[in-house]
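Morning F.,

Quick status update on the modeling queue. The single chain you submitted on Monday has been processed. Sequence for confirmation:
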Amino acid sequence: MLGQLLDGRYKIIYALGAGSFGHTFVAEDTKLYNSRCVVKQLKPLLTDPKSLQIARRLFESEAQLLHLLGSHDQIPQLLAHFEENQEFYLVQQYIPGNTLGEELIQGKQLTEAEVIALLQTILEPLSFVHQNNVVHRDIKPDNLIRRQSDAARLSLRDRKIVLIDFGAVKQIGSQLLNLQGQTKYTVAIGTPGYMPSEQACGNPRYSSDIYAVGMIGIQALT
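Structure tokens below.
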């Protein structure tokens, strides 16, 4: 898909990742000064009219949720969502910066004060997520970006942690399989080492996210 133009404006630049239900790309918005954005693709496994109708409903619901969560300064904004050639796309704000995984180099320890400050800036957006009855389910260093400071807008770009990747595509894909009468398909969204046992069994709770934050704190200290 590299170089492809989606929705008449989003030009795919490079791939960020791939999963069972779609891909994630970095793109340029050709109608907004080629500004960068993140495009997430959902490819339904079944494309019959009934399946597509279900997909549209789930997709619209997930887009509304991401739009709400994106109102927080430390969560990427949802810029657009659309359907093209029986595939569904979410367009989100691109966050420049390094992931926490890149910062927590093996063998590098943070001080207690640094870890407390780190956890506080992670918990700010996570608290907002939980207030809106959402469990993130994949809190880990690679899903936390410390955004680059912008000298022109320093007050808004303070190198805070931004929480990304709410697993929307994977969640919609698994729901589609279950609603279409397929064999029960359980997706344990999360990463080993950061998710507790109840989440691994497909029963995530708000406390599951807190557990993951605690594991990050331990990692940063050791």
